[in-house]
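input
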Amino acid sequence: MKPRTGLIVEIAVNLLLPWLAYRLARPHYGDAGALYASAIPPLAWSIVEFARRRRADALSLLVLLGIALSIVAMALGGGPRMLLMRESLVSGAIGAMFLVSLAFSRPLIFYLARATIAREEAQGSARFEAAWDERAELRRSLRVMTLAWGGGLTSEMLLRCWMVWHWSVERVLVVSPIVSYTIYGGLMGWTFWYRGRLRARSRTAPPPGDGLGETAGH
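output
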């Protein structure tokens, strides 16, 4: 997506502001209080979007789920090894949600993409849904992306859990961030490449309706 105002605001509210709230609240309220504070921006954004569009914001809900899972993992407590696994348990749970969503008519990435496109253009949500109904290639591509992210996040969790239980804590602290960033970077790079290929195909294919080809490419 092009860096338009709607996308910039979405990223700021759902990613930058939660991080900022966490950093500001942590010295005063500890980790648990900071996590609660970080949930305020996406929660408020989700309420505003629901009031405006009568539809829950998919990205905000995903961010809130990650925060909620972090709070649950923190409440479980445990020793150093359990603390090392918290972050991976959260990403693994989200990855599992991606995989489970493949059993439904519309995978999780469909809702994330629709929410983003709805902010980028007028009637974007309706155009995207029409493209989904008309183009088998779009449906297949979003399912492939959902499978890739679900499998990648789940694999990252399983790999880090294996390292935590079989390696020393010191070794895990050094290696696990490298493993995680490598997996996340690989997923991001593959997503940009795959999205570009989809957009190229949508431009060459005859559109089934007004503007649906370009919408599918986005």
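quick obs: DSSP finds nine helices and no strands in the chain.
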